Amino acid sequence: MTPETQEKIEGEIGRFEKGAGEIVVVSAAPFKGRLRLDVRVFWRNAAGEWLPTRKGVSIGRENADEFGRLVREGVLAITGQVVAQESGL
Predict the structure, then answer these.
(1) Which pTM value belongs to this model?
(2) Are 29 and 8 in contact (CB under 8 A)?
(3) Taking CA atoms, which of 4, 24, 40, 59 is between 20 and 30 Å from 67?
(4) Does 89 fall in a domain?
């Protein structure tokens, strides 16, 4: 089965295949009583279920705009649409 035909994860917004047996899932769901944006790697077990790994990031409302801005800038930088600013790293 492809990632698109699998049962949806709670709060799932979308997913894409990362590699053999792994997907990245973007979701918005409550965690400890607060709504979070979660970008997480999932792996498929022997029963065909997608299970979350510790690889990922969970973003709260207070950082959501900055996270979105940085991701957009990163996409533009790697697609050659803009020249990335020096980050000092």
Answers:
(1) 0.76
(2) no
(3) 4
(4) no
